[in-house]
Write a structure and sequence with these properties.
This protein has twelve helices and 15 strands. By secondary structure, the chain is α/β, with parallel strands linked by helices. The protein has a domain at 14-199 and 229-259 and 289-304: NAD(P)-binding Rossmann-like Domain (Rossmann fold, 3-Layer(aba) Sandwich), CATH 3.40.50.720. The chain has a seven-stranded parallel sheet, sandwiched between helices. The chain has a two-stranded antiparallel sheet with strand order 6-15.
């Protein structure tokens, strides 16, 4: 486990390109929703980058901090934290100003049956944040779910494809984008919309979902037969470097892995590595939720951690009992119900 943790730490180190970009940033970095799946790693990468680049920039994280120990962990890493419920007007208004804002707040899982709350968090709250931080650069985390399912052979939706979200969660995410775009135009706020599909770490992600299903001999639904996956560290690097591409009108970029990955192939590879025979139900459909990230690679270069390396590290992590989050991606969902 020590060797795995060392390699894992190495894979999360900032690249020279990130250090160069961070050195050109002015002002502090504020991360709203730092307590989610990607937030802690994003905050730590930002802190490590400003330290190595020797720039005087504070990294500030805001969350309700419902996960025990997370706030102390971030503080011990040199990140300034604030406990706040962003839906509380007084708590939102009490937060500090910052030149650079990452908006990671939102809700997805359990949204079916709580549609009004979903729209409030994903669409109403962004307007309040956009007004409060109208003098900031804003990178807004969004999702590839705003696109419709596309033919597997098409290579995935590009930024030029019209948004056509399926289900109220995805509709509310498009609403989040549109509200930020409105206030960006109104207040001349530089904006970058970061459409992610899907980030993977050792503790969560599509690849972990499949590996655990193989290990536990649970059948894998093949109807969503193909996905995009990207190492969380690469996705976070692109997010930090996106500060240089905030603009009016907003820049929209897909963040995803380069391959159209077959779920069947991934499961069979995990089966070979874990010594298990994967079980499947249903058949692959000719459409899937796929994003084409060619524009991201033009801006930021290709991801540095390849698919097979993530898979090999993930299997070693599972075999040695590494900590995982109980946060399945529900990538199999084709009706937009989360």
């Amino acid at each position: 486990m020590t060797d795995i943790k060392i390699l894992y730490k190495q894979l999360l180190e900032p690249s020279p390109a990130l250090l160069s970009d961070i050195a050109k940033i002015d002002g502090d970095i504020l991360i709203l929703g730092v307590g989610g799946k990607m937030g802690p790693a994003l905050a730590k990468l930002a802190k490590q980058s400003v330290d190595l680049a020797k720039v005087d920039i504070k990294i500030i994280g805001v969350s309700r901090f419902s996960e025990p120990g997370l706030q102390d962990d971030l503080e011990n890493s040199g990140i300034e934290t604030y406990t706040a419920d962003l839906m509380n007007e007084e708590q939102l208004e009490s937060l500090p100003a910052a030149r650079n804002l990452f908006y990671l707040a939102g809700t997805k899982f359990g949204t079916t049956g709580k549609e009004s709350y979903t729209w409030a968090v994903n669409t109403y709250l962004p307007g309040r944040v956009a007004e409060k931080y109208k003098r900031s650069r804003i990178v807004v985390f969004s999702t590839g779910n705003v696109y419709p399912l596309t033919p597997v052979l098409s290579g995935g939706a590009t930024e030029e494809n019209p948004a056509d979200p399926l289900g109220e969660y995805a509709q509310s995410c498009l609403g989040r984008e549109r509200i930020f775009q409105y206030f960006s135009a109104k207040n001349n706020t530089p904006l970058f919309i970061y459409r992610l599909n899907y980030a993977n770490d050792l503790s969560y992600g599509v690849l972990l979902d499949i590996a655990r299903a193989v290990q536990e001999q649970r059948p894998i639904d093949l109807r969503m037969g193909h996905v995009n996956v990207i190492w969380q560290g690469d996705a976070n690097e692109m997010a930090l470097r996106a500060l240089h591409y905030c603009s009016v009108p907003s820049k929209i970029v897909n963040i995803a892995g380069p391959e159209t990955v077959s779920i069947r192939w991934v499961a069979e590879e995990f089966g070979r590595m874990l010594g298990q025979q994967p079980a499947f139900i249903h058949e692959e459909q000719n459409t899937a939720l796929l994003s084409n990230a060619a524009e991201a690679y033009r801006l930021f270069g290709y991801p540095k951690v390849p698919l097979k390396q993530i898979m090999n590290l993930l299997v070693a992590w599972i075999k040695q009992g590494g900590k995982v989050l109980n946060k399945p991606t529900l990538f199999q969902e084709r009706q937009g119900k989360f």
